[in-house]
């Protein structure tokens, strides 16, 4: 583009070219002997002016501690602004945006909802106080902000918040990104009973997160603060629109990046808290562990490391003693297998993002355990049956004991399964539809604990299950196919 530099006696015409790493201004059309070269570095700042009709009329660059202004038409200047967006700091943010609402706030920054003056589009602007950055004598905070912006400039993936522009005012830096209308994943799951998402939604969430982490791995970036609060829905109640935000702790993956304690208690990979070995370095596996904590919460409705205060949470997080046997019969085997791989104590054997994506969990048929539990509770009229744990009556085990143990359920439930398979025209139809411990593997406990239950009543229960199970499975299969 061409632009004009006004002088008292005579104005000069300059020709401008935008490159990947710099902007060049020359008095010659062939761009020889450029007078102004603007490198895209941390200190670079481009200013703007608007005319009376609120259209762009000039841009300014700092040269020898003074601003040099260049005039051009609105369309050319707007195109220049688009090409420079996210690469250099702009000044005069109030020229382009209006804001009157704070949508988030932290110790060092706040997030404002801003509206573009030239359109109806809304964006989120993270405002970081210069005073906060300068409180420490070292440049750690400035360097961290600089690295956060550099990483956001590099990321181009639909599962991450997108950087649009960066501004520098007198008192603050502003990072303008997508405005995500939905809530955090933490608040979203609370809208469901007992924090339990449908199984297909849980798988969708984990797949999106793993795909995003796999992308970060491919460009050698470690997020280091993956948690429910840092995953937002772009559209309200649309779980497929989740995006990962907040790269304030993100780093480039380097061969000798020493471990240091950072992250959110309860989500931190244990090797970070146990960094007694000077040979331990940051790897992308710490993000996999954090994602595993999220997976645990979605599957079990429980917080992995529960305690009364932060100190206790950190201690449990450090020890990382996880009792998977508690959920062995409550979770689908593929889900449990993936969960164990993600929460592996040893980062060397912990799954990578690609290994997670290749896991059978993402290709298997999902099983709705809650439906089976609901059927049994309605049949027995005893809703507390799912809470009976480790009280099975092993005295009444008959000839089917060995086969039942192989199938991981007690003889009574095993007998029901065999009878069901005999009666159906498709004997293998129910073979892969497991009867899980909380419901169907509890008949012996129920019989032994309730002296009032006769064989006639048990027969009624079996008949009820036989009558209802067909329709339940068929209905679920239709729903599953529809979701896919």
Question: What's a concise summary of this model?
Answer:
The chain has 484 residues and is an alpha+beta fold. It has helices at residues 74-84, 130-133, 140-154, 185-190, 199-218, 270-273, 285-300, 310-319, 333-342, 353-357, 369-380, 401-406, 411-423, 443-449, 455-483; strands at residues 2-5, 12-18, 22-26, 36-39, 45-50, 56-63, 66-71, 89-90, 97-105, 109-116, 122-129, 163-168, 172-178, 221-222, 231-233, 242-244, 251-252.
What are its keywords?
484 residues; alpha+beta; PH-domain like; Phosphorylase Kinase, domain 1; Transferase(Phosphotransferase), domain 1; 4 domains; 4-stranded antiparallel β-sheet; 15 helices; 17 strands; 35% helix; 19% strand; kinase; protein serine/threonine kinase activity; ATP binding; Protein_kinase_ATP_BS; serine/threonine-protein kinase
What does the model show?
This protein has 484 residues and is an alpha+beta fold. It folds into four domains: 89 residues, Pleckstrin-homology domain (PH domain)/Phosphotyrosine-binding domain (PTB) (PH-domain like); 83 residues, Phosphorylase Kinase, domain 1, CATH 3.30.200.20; 178 residues, Transferase(Phosphotransferase) domain 1 (Transferase(Phosphotransferase), domain 1, Orthogonal Bundle), CATH 1.10.510; 115 residues, no CATH class. It contains 15 helices and 17 strands. The strands form four sheets. Strands 7-6-5-8-12-13-11-10-9 form a nine-stranded mixed β-sheet, with helices on both faces. The longest helix has 29 residues. About 10% of the residues have low confidence.
